[in-house]
Design brief:
alpha/beta; seven-stranded mixed β-sheet; 6 helices; 38% helix
């Protein structure tokens, strides 16, 4: 009788261990499923929130969250808007580069000062976006062929080559001088990187060598640390 009771007790203990093992296994499986769920849900949420990256270089174009949407490709309309907005500021004592923009407007009195002076539509598009974002935008160079300036890369500069006007130099934002690595420079270039076309370039790479910008669209090159240079002579397409 005692042996029978002992056998029953052993069998009951075995069943108890088996049930405990099953429960432990089930808890482990549920834990793994929860970990997977926590990892996967943000991926879908992120995809829904940011959309699909554009067709940039190997890294892709980073979607811009505050780009203001597409702008016009009508050069005269944009030039008129920039003039009437009054937010473009020329570099004091320089060549009145902003007047090159206003000279494009039929009937503007500055037209005779810069006859036939071309400006890349992408430069105008960029300035349109900039003046919608900032209260003042300081301009220090656009078309050097029109102004007769041979600086930096000379006749090979995007400011001068192919009729000139394919680049813009910005010396200040909201009254703050740009250095290529100050807060406004870094903000401006990072922001614009989200909507400029492939082939666009910006200067001042060495000015921020200690703290590089992780850009996806802009190519970068060495340029003076007293402004921000952006050019489009090698770019394909308009700003987004």
């Amino acid at each position: 009788m005692n042996e029978n009771l002992r056998d029953l007790a052993v069998a009951a203990a075995g069943r108890t261990l088996t049930v405990a093992a099953l429960i432990k296994g089930a808890v482990a499986v549920v834990g793994v499923l929860l970990v997977l769920l926590i990892a996967i849900v943000p991926l879908f949420a992120g995809s829904a929130a940011t959309g699909t990256p554009g067709s940039g270089d190997a890294g892709g174009t980073t979607p811009c969250e505050d780009c203001g949407g597409p702008v016009s490709d009508d050069a005269i309309a944009m030039a008129t808007q920039l003039r009437d907005g009054g937010r473009l500021i020329d570099l004091p004592g320089d060549y009145n580069h902003v007047d090159q923009i206003y000279a494009m407007i039929p009937g503007d009195p500055r037209a005779h000062e810069w006859p036939g002076c071309q400006i890349d539509v992408r430069v105008l598009q960029l300035l349109t976006k900039l003046t919608a974002r900032y209260t003042s935008v300081g301009v220090s160079s656009i078309n050097r062929k029109c102004s007769g300036e041979l600086l930096g890369a000379g006749v090979y500069s995007a400011h001068y080559a192919d009729g000139g006007g394919h680049a813009i130099d910005l010396y200040a934002i909201n009254g703050s001088v740009l250095t290529g690595n100050d807060t406004y420079s870094r903000e401006l270039v990072t922001w614009a990187d989200g909507f400029v076309p492939q082939g666009s370039r910006t200067g001042q790479i060495q000015c921020r060598s200690a703290n590089p910008l992780p850009l996806h669209t802009f190519g970068q090159f060495v340029d003076g640390c007293n402004h921000v240079h952006i050019d489009f002579n090698r770019a394909t397409g308009d700003l987004q």
